[in-house]
Design goal:
Blueprint lengths: L5 E5 L5 H10 L6 E5 L21 E7 L7 H19 L4 E3 L3 E4 L2 E13 L2 E11 L18 H5 L5 H20 L5 H7 L6 E5 L8 E8 L5 E5 L4 E4 L3 E4 L2
Parallel strand pairs: 1-2
Antiparallel strand pairs: 2-3, 3-7, 4-5, 5-6, 6-7, 8-9, 8-12, 9-10, 10-11
Helix pairs in contact: 2-4, 2-5
């Protein structure tokens, strides 16, 4: 088993991503995991703060050393692993919101962040960051009460974080080994996306780019999204915030 070959548990840290990066730069082995009971400044895409009260959820970062051609599949592997773990624990279907959120009943259950360091034509290392809501009670937090979900909500009981963590690592290791074997994850990932064929709006937080009203047409091998803009033109999105249009 590659993922979870070494696990560092921290009671508290600023960011598991930063801790994992420090370990990577000092030669830690592939598959090393940093898991924290609480992180003071967890972050998601676009430098957004990830709300995660102490002792309720999983916030973990995983060190991998992929080939540069394998980088696009890391996000897919993490999303598929989290989705399958959620289904295994709750018995419910979970969906993936492009590009990197996992949802239950249309609300965010898990966020994923991939960061990498590249030298020349090679990858020094990559870090897979996963924030999974386990026992979070969204209704207690006005910022997320209408947008977030948790495993506890759908199980109707307290959910073991330890069990969830090991189920998550099992699935992530499965997909990472498939990547290392040269397999594509794109088709399986696409089958779980919840907006292909739908009318959507793509916004680009942190930039001056205007939002695009379009239809999600198809998914490309590298995970980018081909969309048909309302004016009839085609556009390939590699990042952005997607919302469904009614």
């Amino acid at each position: 088993m590659i993922i979870g070959s070494r696990i560092h548990f921290l009671r508290q840290t600023v960011s598991t991503m930063d801790e994992c990066r420090s370990l990577a730069r000092t030669g830690s082995i592939e598959g090393t995991v940093v898991l924290a009971n609480f992180q003071c400044a967890g972050r998601g895409r676009f430098q957004r703060i990830w709300l995660s009260p102490s002792g309720e959820n999983i916030q973990a970062s995983i060190l991998v050393r992929p080939k540069i051609t394998e980088l696009p599949y890391l996000n897919m592997a993490a999303a598929l692993a989290a989705s399958n773990a959620a289904t295994e624990i709750t018995g419910l279907h979970s969906a993936i919101k492009w590009p990197n959120d996992v949802e239950l009943a249309g609300k965010k259950l898990c966020g994923i962040l991939i960061e990498s360091e590249i030298s020349g034509a090679g990858v020094d290392f990559a870090i897979i960051g996963i924030g999974l809501n386990v026992n979070l009670e969204p209704e207690r937090h006005k910022e997320i009460k209408n947008s977030a979900s948790s495993l506890k909500q759908f199980c109707g009981r307290y959910v073991s974080r330890s069990q969830t963590f090991h189920v998550l690592l099992k699935h992530l290791n499965h997909y990472y080994e498939r990547i290392k074997a040269g397999e594509s994850l794109t088709s399986e990932w696409a089958s779980k996306l919840n907006m292909l064929g739908c009318d959507i709006q793509i916004s680009f937080p942190g930039t001056n780019k205007p939002s695009i009203n379009c239809r999600a047409d198809s998914l490309n091998e590298d995970g980018s999204l081909s969309v048909r803009v309302d004016d009839g033109s085609m556009f390939t999105a590699t990042a952005g915030e997607v919302t469904l249009r009614s």
